[in-house]
Amino acid sequence: MKTDYLLSSLPIKRVEGILPETVTDLAVDSRMVNAGGVFVCIKGFTVDGHAYAHKAVEMGARVIVASEFVNVDTEKIAVVYVEDTTRAIALLAPRFYRYPSKEMTMIGVTGTNGKTSVSNMIHSILRNVGEKSAVTGTIGFDLDGVLYDTENTTNDVLTTQQLIRQAADAGCDTMTMEVSSHGLLEGRLAGTEFDIAIFTNLSHDHLDFHGSMDNYGHAKGLLFAQLGQDLEQKKYGIVNADDPWGQRLREMTAHPVFTFGIQSKADFQAENIKLTVEGTSFKLSSPVGNFVVKTSLIGEFNVYNALASIAALYAKGIQIEDIIDGLAIIPAAKGRMEKVETDLPLTIYVDYAHSPDAIEKAIDAVLPYKEEGSKLIFVIGTGGNRDRIKRPIMAKKASIADYVILTTDDPRDEAYETILAELEVGMEHDRYACIGDREAAVRHAVEVADKHDIIIFAGKGHEDFQIIGKEKLPHSDAQIALEEAEKKFGTGSIQN
Ligand SMILES: CC(=O)N[C@H]1[C@@H](OP(=O)(O)OP(=O)(O)OC[C@H]2O[C@@H](n3ccc(=O)[nH]c3=O)[C@H](O)[C@@H]2O)O[C@H](CO)[C@@H](O)[C@@H]1O[C@H](C)C(=O)N[C@@H](C)C(=O)N[C@H](CCC(=O)O)C(=O)O
Ligand SMILES: Nc1ncnc2c1ncn2[C@@H]1O[C@H](COP(=O)(O)OP(=O)(O)OP(=O)(O)O)[C@@H](O)[C@H]1O
């Protein structure tokens, strides 16, 4: 790309050295720099990218964008000084990747819970109607059925633009993105033009970062504000009418908004809901008539997720009948109330609930199907060095289960004892155990299980690791549980 064109959007303070005519690449990580590229020094929470300018040069960078002095040889390397490099990358990334979001329908999904579930539902339904589709979020970047790992739920602005370009070049019609409140506040979505913004719900989470629910809700609202003011463009908001924040977010966009819900009157409303252990059905009333919707997903929360997906896909112009056909055959998103297939005399779910509301919803989803005299065992951990206020509230919700195992979920640098003590405060009965080591906690769940019991392993979901200290160690709740259950209930009975 022509260097002049790339840099012309930047408010530049001064340039030292001679700019090359063209540049080949753009990077914010010195380890990812390619020869002939531009390296932008970002001040992070952990380190300052300015300290890696010399590394970027070693890797072949031709231009450094910095806000503070960098000691490189300006005979060979040009340094572009700007006031704010985070802002600079937000301008450079979409330009470098040629504003890829304009080439597709972009759907953003925000909310405390349900982002992964809804975005994957939308993706599966679109693929079922024959569209090429991409989705990015907590599980990774799925480009029309091929999954790539990513670091964050909402990636940094450069990775985001890279992924959207990849999806556009692969011929995707739609890209659905999970949009976290961190991502919105930190400008990771700069330059992404959304066509449809979905709000699932708002409940207690991440208060270590946001300070208050009000700040947290407003951060989510930024996605709706990001739909912009050009009303000639067909853009839509989709909000949960049963959540008080639904109305507030509705007011944050001038574009048309569809509502969905169960209790409140909504454009897409579910009535006559039938929840069984095999799946869910409901009558959908919609702007184009009434329909029966069936899915194998369990729990009332999945009715909300289905309604959000239906409303968004309707806004995109997909026929309701096709959306409903797609919902009938989709599997649970990886690690979201995902049943572990086995013919052991136990029912095991792996789930990602790590907020109080999600815990309640996960338990509610299975409690009605518990056999008389059997137990629901709930294993719940919480992350170290993260939101501590939610810990007792999580345990309070977990107390709905018959037996609770309090453990850790990425303890990071925090001692097991502090995490467990803060969880324990919320317990509302004494049928529980505190076991810091997650593997031991999983084994204990199976040890105390009798035939016909249900166990939910919450918090790790799709993740196959546990972060202890700075290390990411391999860990799988399902694998450990199956191993232990096989020992206890007999071999040869595991199906996966
Ligand atoms: C607190 C936070 O937001 N951290 C994010 C941040 O990390 P950081 O500020 O510590 O980055 P850093 O290590 O200081 O690096 C600064 C700069 O130096 C560069 N660098 C660094 C090392 C090197 O050798 N060379 C080099 O150039 C880095 O590439 C970077 O440009 O920038 C990283 C790169 O974009 C993110 O991956 C990282 O997310 C971490 C993993 C994280 O846990 N974030 C959480 C808080 C988060 O964002 N969560 C939400 C989801 C919430 C939810 O809904 O559950 C999310 O969207 O993921
Ligand atoms: N609509 C919903 N309302 C409440 N709880 C939900 C909803 N959908 C899913 N859940 C619960 O929350 C957990 C996380 O779901 P999901 O991964 O879809 O949410 P998320 O918003 O992507 O979360 P995260 O940002 O942490 O990845 C699920 O495992 C389930 O227990």
UniProtKB/TrEMBL annotation:
In-chain residues carrying the UniProt-annotated modification N6-carboxylysine: 220
Taxonomy, superkingdom: Bacteria
Single GO MF descriptor: UDP-N-acetylmuramoylalanyl-D-glutamate-2,6-diaminopimelate ligase activity
Cross-referenced PROSITE patterns: FOLYLPOLYGLU_SYNT_1
Required cofactor names: Mg(2+)
Keyword Ligase on entry: yes
Location of this chain's protein in the cell: Cytoplasm
Alphabetized UniProt keyword annotations: ATP-binding, Cell cycle, Cell division, Cell shape, Cell wall biogenesis/degradation, Cytoplasm, Ligase, Magnesium, Nucleotide-binding, Peptidoglycan synthesis
EC number per UniProt: 6.3.2.-
Pathway given in the UniProt record: Cell wall biogenesis; peptidoglycan biosynthesis
Sequence positions that bind ATP: 111-117
Entry comment on modification after translation: Carboxylation is probably crucial for Mg(2+) binding and, consequently, for the gamma-phosphate positioning of ATP.
Binding-site list for UDP-N-acetyl-alpha-D-muramoyl-L-alanyl-D-glutamate: 30, 152-154, 180, 188
Cross-referenced InterPro entries: Folylpolyglutamate_synth_CS (IPR018109), Mur-like_cat_sf (IPR036565), Mur_ligase_C (IPR004101), Mur_ligase_C_dom_sf (IPR036615), Mur_ligase_cen (IPR013221), Mur_ligase_N (IPR000713), MurE/MurF_N (IPR035911), UDP-N-AcMur-Glu-dNH2Pim_ligase (IPR005761)
Domain named Mur ligase N-terminal catalytic: residues: 25-96
Boundaries of every Mur ligase C-terminal domain copy: 335-461
Purpose of the protein: Catalyzes the addition of an amino acid to the nucleotide precursor UDP-N-acetylmuramoyl-L-alanyl-D-glutamate (UMAG) in the biosynthesis of bacterial cell-wall peptidoglycan.
Family: Belongs to the MurCDEF family. MurE subfamily.
Protein name (Swiss-Prot/TrEMBL): UDP-N-acetylmuramyl-tripeptide synthetase
Native source species: Sporosarcina quadrami
